[in-house]
Structure formats: structure tokens, C-alpha cells
Amino acid sequence: MQHLLKIVNDLNSRGISFHRLQEKITMDKSTATRQLMFHLFAAFADFERNLIQVLQQAEG
């Protein structure tokens, strides 16, 4: 997740932000709310990745 934060911070410093079109959410760190949403989505993605790994190990 640290790598993702580094990339997003670098892009944000250049004025680039991510937009989730389906949910109509801007994923940047320009406001406290947007920063919170970004971190929540990143944490859920990290959790999901770890959960998939655990489930794959249990099957194998």
C-alpha cells in the first residue's frame, strides 16, 4: 500500500487525480474527505488482496 500512496502523492503533486466513474468519486488528497475516502478504498483493496491470498493457501 505504501507504493500506491507514493504514486498517488506524486501524481497529486502534478495536479493529477483519479476519478471513479461508476461511483462519481474523485480520488485525490485535495480535501480531508477525499483523503479519507482514498485511504479507505486503499485499505479495502489491501484487505481483499490479503484475503484472496489466505483463501488460496487454504485451498492448496
List the helices and strands and how they pair.
Layout: H1 2-13, E1 18-20, E2 25-27, H2 32-59
How would you describe this protein?
The chain has two helices and two strands, in the order αββα. It has one domain (2-59). The radius of gyration is 14 Å and the shape is elongated. With 60 residues, it is mainly α. Strands 1-2 form a two-stranded antiparallel ribbon. It has helices spanning 2-13, 32-59; strands spanning 18-20, 25-27.
Order of helices and strands: HEEH
Percent of residues in helical segments?
55-70%
> Which regions are unreliable across 5 or more consecutive residues at pLDDT < 50?
none
Strand order of the largest sheet: 1-2
Instruction: Tell me the β content.
Output: 5-15%
Shape: elongated
How does the helix and strand content classify structurally?
Answer: mainly alpha
- Count of extended strands: 2
- If you average the pLDDT, what whole number results? 83
Radius of gyration from CA coordinates = 14 Å
Terminal Cα span:
26 Å
Note the total helix count: 2
How many structural domains can be distinguished in the coordinates? 1
Biggest sheet overview: 2 strands, antiparallel
